[in-house]
Write a structure and sequence with these properties.
Length: 460
């Protein structure tokens, strides 16, 4: 069957893979080619063991792979065949030179642009999907202007999907944002991208804007979401001291429709590949224009998050008689949130590293993220065990630290777990997902986030 058009995507990661799978699924008239330089990644996209775990993704990939969705390392072929090319490569925080630790590292993006230029055989629309600093489209256009033969129109189409709910977010987005230049070429390119999404997204949810607004909106959306979490987390130590309950506070303020109830869940700290990176990037841009006050404001969101992770471990040390040496800690969850195997910037990385510095023995349980946990901790000194069996992890453990809100942790037999642990047994619930009163009744000393602890110790 002939296809109406071909779409390529450079980068088969957490964004590119699921996004292109959904486009292929919803647009059988288009051929979609996803390219990556990582051969192993592509091999896995073509296998039954996909490199990304997302509820609903396996089914969609099975349905369309080999029909109108293809995963390949053949960049040249994909660039030649496609009229529209999405760039979905990683843009990590820069680890060298100017802007080290703050700015986005755009080398993968630039490399992708250069590859497009090298292999192109005609005009193309380039869609900036990776999260980028404001005015990155200009930087890509600058590189692409090196081609004297063809015209490349760059549009911005930031991704708002959250991991763990990626497929749902892609199928039913709150909005799709497409930014372009306000020139005839820019508007024409933008309309081409609108046409793709119109296949399943109601037209009123497809928003078009100027390209810089689109780029900044992505950074701002993530900064606002993260700011809500840091705001609520900043109140948790106060709650623990004065006896207020952070969940009640969240609920009470969230009922104000101007505030809303989402993203107000106190936790051991936010993780994920986006929040910290995007805020640092925003802060860097603000500073580069001399806007120090605005930069300091957003920087505090990251600092509160770092403080929350550290505070969690300090609290464990303090409550467990000021020493964790040779104590066994069962870490429940390593993924940065439930329903994903992704561990990038997970609070668990910081917490486990600090526990190991204290010479604790750590036993990590996670249903999906152990493979990534092993990679994250490969150079770390200390004793770490990995298991998918929570009952094995807690054997002779002194404490449990809940770091990811996996459903399975709620359904465990905590009477049995209590029996298996050393006494006194501690639970530090960094996600407030467990039944604290019941755990206390069983015999545990329970330390939720932002609530008064429930302990069996007598005050002397
Ligand atoms: C985020 C944005 O939500 C998404 O729109 C954007 O495209 C990419 O960045 P993601 O990082 O995948 O998505 O997950 P998200 O659900 O936002 O969670 C981020 C972190 O915040 C997780 O560690 C999560 O556990 C934590 N979180 C979230 C809280 O601690 N409390 C909350 O109330 C919500
Ligand atoms: P994200 O979460 O933004 O999707 P990932 O790191 O999961 O980020 O995925 C980005 C992908 O882009 C990786 O699989 C990486 O190998 C790929 N990539 C980076 N640069 C290039 C390039 N020049 N050509 C093809 N693929 C690339």
């Amino acid at each position: 069957m002939g296809f109406e058009k071909t779409i390529a995507c450079i980068g088969a990661g957490y964004v590119g893979g699921p996004t292109m799978s959904v486009i292929a699924y919803k647009c059988p008239q288009y051929k979609v080619i996803v390219v990556d330089i990582d051969e192993e990644r592509i091999r896995r996209w073509n296998s039954d063991n996909l490199p990304v775990y997302e509820p609903g993704l396996d089914e969609i990939v099975k349905e369309v792979r080999g029909k109108n969705l293809f995963f390949t390392t053949d960049l040249e072929g994909a660039v030649k065949e496609a009229e529209i090319i999405f760039i979905s490569v990683n843009t990590p925080t820069k680890e060298y030179g100017v802007g080290k630790g703050m700015a986005s590292d755009l080398r993968y993006l630039e490399k992708a642009a250069r590859d497009i230029m090298k292999y192109a055989n005609g005009d193309k629309i380039i869609v900036e999907k990776s999260t980028v600093p404001v005015r990155a489209a200009e930087a890509i256009s600058k590189v692409l202007s090196g081609s004297k033969k063809y015209h490349f129109e760059v549009v911005s189409n930031p991704e708002f999907l959250a991991e763990g709910t990626a497929i749902n977010d892609l199928l039913y987005p709150d909005r799709v944002l497409i930014g372009s230049r306000e020139t005839p070429e820019g508007i024409k390119a933008r309309e081409e991208i609108v046409k793709i999404y119109e296949n399943w997204v109601p037209r009123e949810k497809i928003i078009t804007s100027n390209i810089w607004s689109s780029e900044l909106s992505k950074l701002a959306a993530n900064a606002f979401l993260a700011q809500r979490i840091s705001s609520i987390n900043s109140l948790t130590p106060l709650c623990e001291i004065v006896g207020a309950d952070i969940e009640e506070v969240s609920k009470n303020i969230g009922l104000d429709s101007r505030i809303g109830n989402k993203f107000l869940k106190a936790s051991v700290g936010f993780g994920g590949s986006c929040f910290k990176k995007d805020i640092l990037n925003l802060v860097y841009i603000l500073r580069s224009y001399g806007l120090e006050e605005s930069a300091d404001y957003w920087m505090k969101v990251v600092e509160i998050n770092e403080y929350q992770k550290t505070r969690f471990v300090y609290n464990m040390i303090k409550e467990m008689s000021n020493t964790l040496a040779d104590k066994k800690i069962a870490v429940f969850g390593f993924a940065f949130k439930a329903n994903t195997n992704d561990t990038r910037e997970s609070a668990a990385i910081t917490v486990v590293k600090k526990l190991l510095e204290e010479k604790a023995i750590v036993s990590i349980v996670d249903p999906k993220a152990l493979e990534n946990a092993k990679k994250d901790l490969k150079d770390v000194k200390g004793t770490v065990f990995y298991t998918e069996d929570p009952y094995e992890a807690v054997k002779d453990a002194d404490a449990i630290a809940v770091l990811t809100e996996w459903e399975i942790f709620k359904k465990l037999d905590y009477e049995k777990i209590y029996e298996l642990m050393r006494k006194p047994a501690f639970i530090f619930d960094g996600r407030n997902i467990l039944d604290h009163n019941n755990l206390f009744r069983i015999g545990f000393n329970v330390y939720p986030i932002g609530k008064k602890p429930l302990t069996h110790f007598e005050k002397i």
